[in-house]
Amino acid sequence: MANRNGVQRRNGKSIGKQHAFGDLVYDWNQVDSVAAVAPKPLQLFDETLRDGLQSPSVTDPPLEKKLELLDLMDELGIGHADVGLPGAGARQRSDVLAIARHLKKHRRTLRPAVACRTVVSDIAPAAELQQRAGMPIEVYAFIGSSPIRQLAEGWDVEHLLSTSEAAVRFCVQEKLPVVFVTEDTTRSHPATLDRLFRHAVELGADALCVCDTVGWATPDGVDQLLRWTRSLLRGMSAERVRVEFHGHNDRGLALANTLQAIRSGADRVHGCALGIGERVGNTPMDLLLLNLKLLGQYERDLTQLVRYVRTASAACGVPIPRNYPLSGEDAFRTATGVHASAIIKAEALGDRWLADSVYSGVPASWFGKEQVIEIGPMSGLSNVSYWLKKRGFPADEQLARALLERAKAGNRTLSEAEVLELLRAETARLPARARAGA
């Protein structure tokens, strides 16, 4: 598969200037790898503006910020997005309508969806909004299916069936595309799921969404659940029904679980920018895209992926951790001498891919970023010389050694302002030749 610059990165194909991927990287990820078995092309469903906003620590952004984020989703190739809960109040309904009209007016390929309880009074506003917007609005009708949830709510399976039937029938009657969602699927008994899924499919549900609502599952559990669901649909001759996976991160496994869901046959998978959402959040959509790109399963240009994360961060008031993959400040930043030396040598060969990959599993340039070399107590002379050259200062070894000595006396990586201050101080102490050059 070629990246956006035409650089091949699969075994036996050329990469960089003169290399073959298999010559430089033995990819254990591909040894006996099982390809995704989904019968349809993979679809992505962005939950940032619904489940993401259910985080107790986020700000619900104004409409213009939501539209900006949706436009970025569309640019990245994310095909579907949950844009709110119309049953939650007037503001939610107003935003959903404005979003649908915006997507239609600007001819976005992104398609809107909403979340509703399996209660007709929740879904009725979605039917009205679909009529007013003049475009389909998909309904995700959800109900808890696990024994623990049934006990807490005072429900039995007959209640689940009757409530679900009323909701799905209403959607079909109103020509609303409907996804039947079982909350807490990963802790639900297969006998219950069998009855609920069969009933929803027979009533005309377009898709089934299995949820790891409380982040209970491991990849093995996700694999078992997805294969069981696929087998059920095959037995019903209902392979047309889409299977979706929605994951949470309580065990820190949301991304791994979602990648496993794809391998196990999910047609559509869910995520949120920065992984925001209930409690500790959802599958990070940005990291899912990053991994799909590296696995050769996503062809779209992702140079705007960091912008998507930063836009969501600013709009929702969620800081990006410094060490967050790809979008964090430290993602491609090093002050370590050994690392910096290898990157600098690769750059000297004129090989961008090599410089991006020698000390990084993620090629920065694929995502609109670059390697950053800084100066600190773990640095070598190459760090300082590179830093000076990058900023247009003369490559004076005496000055570089003096700066390195000062850096090694410290206890952290120096900021640019601090290095410039040291540079001024050291230049003043050096002979006139160095002073004039700096």
CATH superfamily of the largest domain: Aldolase class I
Integer average pLDDT: 92
Strand order of the largest sheet: 3-4-5-6-7-8-9-10
Question: How many helical elements?
Answer: 17
The CATH topology of the largest domain corresponds to: TIM Barrel
The level 1 CATH classification of the largest domain is Alpha Beta
The percent range for helix content is 40-55%
Quote the distance from N terminus to C terminus.
Answer: 46 Å
DSSP, total strands: 12
Q: Please give the domain count.
A: 2
Order of helices and strands: EEHEHEHEHEHHEHEHEHEHHEHHEHHHH
User: What is the CA-atom radius of gyration, in angstroms?
Assistant: 26 Å
Provide the structure class. Answer: alpha/beta
State the shape.
elongated
- Per CATH, the architecture of the largest domain is Alpha-Beta Barrel
The percent range for strand residues is: 5-15%
Which stretches are low in confidence, meaning pLDDT under 50 for 5 or more residues running?
A: 1-13
List keywords for this structure.
438 residues, alpha/beta, 2 domains, 8-stranded parallel β-barrel, two-stranded antiparallel sheet, 12 strands
Explain what you see.
The protein contains 17 helices and twelve strands. The strands form three sheets. The chain has an eight-stranded parallel barrel, surrounded by seven helices. A two-stranded antiparallel ribbon has the order 1-2. The protein has a two-stranded parallel sheet with strand order 11-12. With 438 residues, it is α/β, with parallel strands linked by helices. The chain folds into two domains: 40-316, Aldolase class I (TIM Barrel, Alpha-Beta Barrel), CATH 3.20.20.70; 333-437, no CATH class.
